[in-house]
Amino acid sequence: MCELLGMSANVPTDIVFSFTGLMQRGGRTGPHRDGWGIGFYEGRGLRLFQDPQASADSEVAQLVQRYPIKSTAVIGHIRQANVGAVSLANTHPFVRELWGQNWCFAHNGQLADFASAQGFYQPVGDTDSEAAFCELLNRLRSYFTQLPSLDKLLTVLVEACDEFRQAGVFNCLLSNGDWLFSYCTTKMTHITRRAPFGPATLKDADVTVDFHAETTPNDVVTVIATDPLTDNEAWVLYQPGEWKLWRDGVIYSEGKA
Amino acid sequence: MCELLGMSANVPTDIVFSFTGLMQRGGRTGPHRDGWGIGFYEGRGLRLFQDPQASADSEVAQLVQRYPIKSTAVIGHIRQANVGAVSLANTHPFVRELWGQNWCFAHNGQLADFASAQGFYQPVGDTDSEAAFCELLNRLRSYFTQLPSLDKLLTVLVEACDEFRQAGVFNCLLSNGDWLFSYCTTKMTHITRRAPFGPATLKDADVTVDFHAETTPNDVVTVIATDPLTDNEAWVLYQPGEWKLWRDGVIYSEGKA
After folding, report:
1. Number of CB atoms found within 10 A of residue A150's CB
2. What ipTM does the predicted assembly reach?
3. What would the pLDDT profile of B216-227 be if each residue is shown by its tens digit?
4. Phi/psi of residue B240, nearest 5 degrees
């Protein structure tokens, strides 16, 4: 299995603290040694770092940990391979351009015998995850010729996710830079930080940060993870079948299958 | 204007030496301060590093200079902006998935009033370069439903490039990981290194490398650049209208408009 990391914020915020915690689970405090990746939206651009190496040993991961990239939407992932070899092409998150936007996707779980229909988007690697991402985007394209309203988009997205979960475990994060969609079938959790900010301590590394010193009173920052990354905060668990669409750090829409 | 860097090799080879020379031209020995990027194919995957900052000052560029990523096909670029603001979305190279492959493109030059027809691929940023890339891929998709033979592909590619150059300057590099296509309208040069290998000295930094110590007798490595990167080797100039498709370090096909 794998672990996911997401962030949605109302001001460009760096995710160094949470990323540092997650990276330890890629070979040090956790078994997810088979690659890692993280995508940061910067305006309409997407900055993607990936490595098929274990994150705990990755020089690129070390760079990202000391390089505070500010973003309002982030998707990260550490991999413990089940379907598909350990390779760059099988490393999450996956990215495609749709309607002139960068769409970014990461998946935790496994889909049995997932076969995507033929369509415009085709997987580059061998994972069930990338096949599911392509299928999602192909469906969106078949329903809409341009970016629809969020509510219309959500109807198609949620219906597809509800179908995919019949084939196995499908916890996922998806973003187009404007919003962050999260879907849980087994395990997902989030925390929303806002004023008054306090200190937080990582579970996986001896690191404490005082968010009060790094934020302004209007900041709202939500972090989503497979398992809580800190041990002194009250993370909120998703229920199986629950989905939430985050925008500017807060829930825009949510529901449950 | 901008500068291009390409590599085609018959064995996975690192491009640290050439990249180090090019990066100096992004703010130190050259005026190309408006961002840089480089894509390395690793198997079917593509590892992309980009930064809208000047390469001479970029921490990510420093990482790439000390991190020998081995690849058989590489496309790099440093930018001096003309069309489009300085931003990540306008930073080359651009990437799209086509037929389950990562296609990567960088452009040096400027196309006047370039308007791409509506199509499947749409630019994310504002550059003429990305619009031309999308138009290229849209044409390929309209001609072929799957990857055709290289000769058929080349016919469409060269015809499109010949048309684009009517609108301005169109030096470009394009790759799908298997081959590297290069097209010159004003300025492009290459060097092919093979046994017996000797020393090479960068023009833009006080760096000499002895390729004899870093290669085997069967290695063939071609580097393509806008301007020669070394001052003790005989770089070969492209003629205006000349194109070459490189594969495994050697020319697979070439021609001239």
Report:
1. 16
2. 0.94
3. 999 999 999 999
4. -55, 135
Which strands make up the sheet holding B36-42, listed edge to edge?
B45-51, B36-42, B70-78, B3-14, B220-225, B189-194, B236-237
Selecting from B52, B97, B125 the residue whose C-beta is nearest the C-beta of A121 gives B97
Q: In residues, how long is chain A? A: 257
Instruction: Report how many helices (DSSP H) and strands (DSSP E) chain A contains, helices first.
Output: 5, 15
Strands B3-14 and A45-51: unpaired
Looking at residue B118, the DSSP 8-state letter turns out to be S
Query: Which residue, among A94, A97, A120, A142, would best test binding to B if mutated, counting the most B CBs under 10 Å from its CB?
Result: A97
Q: How far apart are CA A110 and CA A129, in angstroms?
A: 8
Q: Are the beta carbons of B48 and A43 separated by less than 8 Å? A: no
Residue that the structure tokens 């190496």 belong to: A53
Assign a CATH topology to domain A3-256. Answer: Glutamine Phosphoribosylpyrophosphate, subunit 1, domain 1 (3.60.20)
- Over residues B61-95, the pLDDT tens digits come to 998 888 888 999 999 999 988 878 899 999 999 99
Q: Would you say B114 and B129 are in contact if contact means Cβ atoms under 8 Å apart?
A: no
Strands (E), chain B: 3-14, 36-42, 45-51, 70-78, 94-98, 101-108, 171-175, 180-183, 189-194, 199-201, 208-210, 220-225, 236-237, 242-247, 250-256
Q: Are B78 and B53 in contact (CB under 8 A)?
A: no
Q: For A102, which residue in chain B has the nearest alpha carbon? A: B124
What SS3 state is found at B97?
A: strand
Mutual orientation of helices A59-66 and B59-66 as an angle, nearest 10°? 160
pLDDT at B116: 74
Contact flag B123-A102 (C-beta cutoff 8 Å)? no
What is the residue extent of each domain of chain B?
3-256
- A-B C-beta contacts closer than 8 Å: 80
- Measured in degrees and rounded to the nearest 5, phi and psi for residue A145 equal -90, -20
Separation in Å, CA A8 to CA A172, A242, B140, B221: 15, 18, 37, 44
